[in-house]
Amino acid sequence: VICIEPLDHFPIERDLVIVMDSFMEKLASVKPYVIANESKPLSEGENLQTPLQLMAFKQYTLCINCLLCYAACPQCGLNEDFVGPAALALAHRYNLDSRDNGNDQRGDVVASNEGIWECTFVGACSEVCPKQVDPAAAIQQTKISASLDWFKARLLPGAHR
Amino acid sequence: MSRRPYMRKLKRGWWLGQRRYVVYMVRELTSLFVGVYCALLVVGLVRLAQGPAAWDAFLAALASPPGILLQLLCLAFAAYHSITWFAVTPKAMPLALRGEPVPAKAIVGMHYGAWALVSLIVLIAAGL
Asked: What pLDDT digit, counting tens, does each position of A104-157 carry?
């Protein structure tokens, strides 16, 4: 049996058409672009990247925003404010980028209750992903790095928040 | 013309529809038994603080058939919880050694090794 229906967990505009405005807002909220180090003058030239540094995040660049992960994720259905797998995987992609300096700026959204901590690692997002982005892995890795950041901000001497 | 998008409601039994959601919910259920065993340890501490008589009664309750059944249930669920967690650790904590990613099997193996080591230490400390 082949079942054709609109994407789950999104408002339906008509027939198979869903409203994806909420996703676009969530995607923009994690600042999915390279936030470069502004102190480096242009005269120093381009930001070179080794193949190894590229490999660290390449898989997470392959997302095509198909929204299958949002339709598969029960947490997206239970809480419409959940930032969701694709947006969080893209935040992880830029945080891992050696040219990027925006981890702190993304933290308020990414490491919030509606961000990574709403994820309960069902893992369905990674199973349905047509590009093998593996958003579930990205979110679990972000949970570890965000926890380390939280402790560093409170325990290290000279740290303040 | 105003838009009136329709939002479908999540059904109460949403997790029964697909195998992966059922497996997920079973794993969530195991946390309950891990919690029960933690509570049991706290009760044991309280009984120990109350004196030798209370402690002996606690030990006798643990050794009774219902006590043993409860501990076996907790052990089974805790083992399932741990094994399913170990299986996904390569995803959650990928390691790289000198630029080469550590194979998934090695990461899982290290977790089992740590489990065996801690179990051995507990058994030695318990005097077995």
From this structure: 999 999 999 999 999 999 999 999 999 999 999 999 999 999 999 999 988 888
* Interval A3-35: pLDDT, tens: 999 999 999 999 999 999 999 999 999 999 999
What phi and psi, each to the nearest 5 degrees, are found at residue A156? -70, 140
Global pTM reads 0.89
Q: 3-state SS of chain A: helix, strand, coil percent to 5?
A: 50, 5, 45
Chain-chain contact of A137 with B92 (C-beta, under 8 angstroms): yes
Looking at per-residue confidence, does A72 or B101 come out higher? A72
- What value of ipTM does the predicted structure carry? 0.83
Among A8, A12, A136, beta carbon nearest to B5: A12
Q: Mutate which of B9, B12, B22, B24 to test chain A, going by most A C-beta atoms within 10 A?
A: B24
> Rounded distance, CA B40 to CA A58, Å?
47
Separation of alpha carbons A30 and A23, rounded Å = 11
A126 vs A141: CA distance, rounded Å: 14
Q: In the numeric block, which tokens belong to residue A156?
A: 């290290």
Distance CA(B57)–CA(A157), nearest Å, equals 49
A128 contact B CB<8A: no
Helix axes of A21-29 and A85-96: crossing angle, nearest 10 degrees: 20
How far does CA B16 lie from the centroid of its chain?
Answer: 22
Residue A66 and residue A28: Cα distance in Å, rounded?
Answer: 16
Q: What residues of B are in contact with residue A8 (Cβ under 8 Å)? A: 8
Task: Report the relative pairing of strands A12-14 and A17-18 from DSSP bridges.
Answer: antiparallel
Query: In angstroms, rounded to a whole number, what is the distance separating the alpha carbons of residues B33 and B27?
Result: 11
Contacts B15 to A, Cβ<8 Å: 74
